[in-house]
Amino acid sequence: MEHMHIKELPALRSPTLLMAFAGWSDASSAATTAASFIAQEVGGHRFAHIDSDIFYNFQDMRPLVTLDERGMRKITWPSNAFYACRTPNLDHDLVVFLGVEPHLQWKRFTQIVLHMARRLDVRIAVTLGALLADVHHGAKVRITGSSTNAELGARLGLRASRYEGPTGIVGILNNLFRDENLPAVSVWANTPHYVNVSPNPKAALALIERMSDFLSLAFDVSGLVAGAREFEEKVDQALASNQAVRDYVEQLRLRSGEEEERGELPSGEELARELERYLRERRRNGEGPPAGGAPGGKD
């Protein structure tokens, strides 16, 4: 397919597609940090990428110049890459997509992503996001979820999103997956709007822990746990010198203990088991999305 470059299409077993985009849907880089961590933990290798030329305004998002070990200049362009992650302990594999929300031609961009999902015979798509919210940095990170698939949402205890207003590439993709009968779930971390720190290790850790349940995969998160603890301590230190902000943040802390967390994503093994039951029933009923082209070759 035009604008898609495939080094070698991997032979994967009905993979789950996990996606995260830097930009509007990635407050404090929590979503992309989580997806990148998962890809590395599972030993993902990059096998395809989407050209950046037609999808970005490089006056708004300029390429980065770095120097290599020899002092030579290197240009880094916005990256949209697919990583194959084999999970032999499960009956399916994982594909991680790490990208940057494009500026232009969203319809063409999302069709390229859908084309790859078809070729890989993806069984379910999961998009990660993070948003700025009125939440306390010391509270448990609120993880909300939704699904554009009514049956899947009901099975997993998720409601359809009630949001109205401007949307990002994650919202466009989820609607496209719905229209193409590809089950999809969107999972979001709520990050404190008064903390301008990127990445936010605490929010990333919360997403990773939920994905550990959802994907039935175990990850070593000890480094992130330490980072989350240090994050809280540094925010506390920064607030110590500003009484007005500290008073406001204290109000958020009190409120966080009283609010019902609507749309909270269920956790635990039961979530993963219910997802597997739903997907098995779809396969038995012949409701899965049609498979794409055979593995191998290039588009």
Can you offer a commentary on this structure?
About 35% of the residues lie in helices and about 20% in strands. With about 300 residues, the chain is of the alpha/beta class. The model is unreliable at about 290-299 (pLDDT under 50). The protein has one domain (about 5-285): 3-Layer(aba) Sandwich (Rossmann fold), CATH 3.40.50.10900. A hairpin with an 8-residue loop joins strand 6 and strand 7 (about 95-100). The longest helix is centred in the last third of the chain and has 18 residues, at about 220-240. The protein contains eight helices and ten strands. The protein has an eight-stranded mixed sheet with strand order 1-3-6-7-2-8-10-9, sandwiched between helices. The chain has a two-stranded antiparallel ribbon with strand order 4-5.
Would you summarize the structure shown here?
Helix 2 (106-119) crosses helix 4 (169-179). The protein has helices at 30-41, 106-119, 150-156, 169-179, 201-215, 222-239, 243-256, 269-284; strands at 4-6, 16-22, 45-50, 64-67, 73-76, 81-85, 94-100, 124-133, 143-147, 184-192.
